[in-house]
Amino acid sequence: MNSHAAGTSNGGSGDAAAGGAARRNTRMPKYSKFTQQELPACKPILTPKWVVSVFFIVGVIFVPIGVVSLLAARDVVEIIDRYDEACVPSNMTENKLAYIQNETISKECIRNLTVTKDMKQPIFVYYELDNFYQNHRRYVKSRNDAQLRDASKANQTSACEPEKTTANGQPIVPCGLIAWSLFNDTYNFTRGNENLTVDKKDISWKSDREHKFGKDVYPSNFQNGALKGGATLNPKIPLSEQEDLIVWMRTAALPTFRKLYGRIYFDLKENDTITVRLNNNYNTYSFGGKKRLVLSTATWLGGKNDFLGFAYLIVGGLCIFLAFAFTLLYFVKPSTSIGAPSINFGGLEPDNQLFCFTTLLTLVLHTAILLIVDFSVLAKASVYHYFSLTPYTSGNANPICGFGRKLGDHNYLSWNRHPAGR
Hints:
The two termini are 36 Å apart. This protein has helices spanning 2-25, 48-74, 96-101, 137-141, 145-149, 177-180, 206-212, 243-249, 307-332, 350-372, 376-387, 404-408, 410-413, and strands at 78-82, 108-114, 123-130, 186-191, 194-196, 198-199, 257-264, 273-279, 290-296. The protein has a domain at 77-297. It is α+β, with helices and mostly antiparallel strands. Helices cover 37% and strands 13% of the residues. The strands form two sheets. Strands 1-9-3-7-6 form a five-stranded antiparallel beta sheet. It has a four-stranded antiparallel beta sheet with strand order 2-8-4-5, with no helix packed on it. Helix 2 (48-74) runs antiparallel to helix 9. The chain is extended and about 85 Å long. It is found in: Membrane.
């Protein structure tokens, strides 16, 4: 009998050990309220009064912001001059590439600009390039940040192909295609007999100057090859002070972009004539690019851009329109059992259709508002938030809009949720 009991005990221990081994080998995650989405959560009930109030408040806030943004953008004065075609000699308009590649032909060009409105200092001088893809993957990766920061790492030229070393194997500092293609057109401005000096100090980001480009890193072997891509650098000036390079190295996301060339600290009056003596050195003809010189003022909102103002006006106006539409619908059909929107949400009861219709419109407006301020992560979160709303309904604990089983139902999202099922 004792022997039998002992055998049973050993067998139980063996089963427990096997169960423990099985538990250790399982792929099931450890249970917690956080991972299984069982923490307390606020799930507001979107009543008609609440929805109308939110739409109206958002509209009242957004419309004035849009108007103020548009007025600020309209106060910006810009002078834009495309000169890449105008500076080509008349006898070489059919072969622009030969013109830009021939070093014996003078690239100096004179342009006269007329000031259309009074321009208060500082006046920002930009160069604008079109059809130049600085966001190309190979181009963006063709640099070595460690080499730019630390003089002891001058030999680190990995990822800088094809501009990493000279023909005799000496490292190029700064290496890579971005630095090699540095913009090299120059501009000088005069108003009558008065020289308008361009201040090129602090045109780059302070964080770039202090943290990305070393004070002890000097150019070496730069643009020494047979094929020169752009401007040369003074080997006696550290990279942290060569701000034209720092500005150029912050690559643009779009093929049409502007980069700051400098600032003019002179007030320009309406109808003033500005003479620009420029050197048309940069080759954009080989890839069909365009070059423009831009003189611009700035406001508290920045440069000239109407998109932000129109975006706020459109969203604000739409919110006010929906607020009045829902108010009218609420007074015409105060009881949702009398009728509901014509949209059928998966055969739901009429009492729930108005809620679902309102929820979807709120989702669209909420996402649009978030996109204006570029909170894309929050926009994604809002999608999940609205689809997983579970308002109180008598005797029904399931999401009433019919999306819960796919997007909002925690039993669907969570694997083997309850401890008892494990």
